[in-house]
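Continuing the series of single-chain predictions for the mutant panel. This is the parent chain; the variants come on the following pages.
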Amino acid sequence: MKKKPLLLNKNQGFTLLEVVITLIVGSILGAILVQFMGTSMKNSFEPVMMVQNANGVDEIMERMNADYKMRLLTSTVDPLGDFKTDVDNGNVIANVPYFGEYTGATEYILFDGTGNEVPDNIHLRVLKVTITHGGQSLTALFTR
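Parent structure:
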């Protein structure tokens, strides 16, 4: 019994319908990927900016801390009062010392028996300094 030879002239390939469906599915997936990656890329700078601003506010506070330690060593008459004036005016570039760009709030405080802070206009021993730079805030206490 003789076998028939296989027909090798059979057309092989994709039909037009298969190519069109593949292109449509690929473009839908591509649009979804672009939308997802675009949102991720657009918001990716925010954590970096937060870290940079936190580093900036920390650097400003370190400058203030160094200035206060120097004031204590040089033993001025009222180092805490002089330091409060420096902090209140230290964000203007023309003033000396200049700590950097920030908004600050200073107040003398006292801790009552329960650990809560209350304003103190008599003893003036603890100065609370809160500075804000680039949306990040930092608070420190300076004592006599």
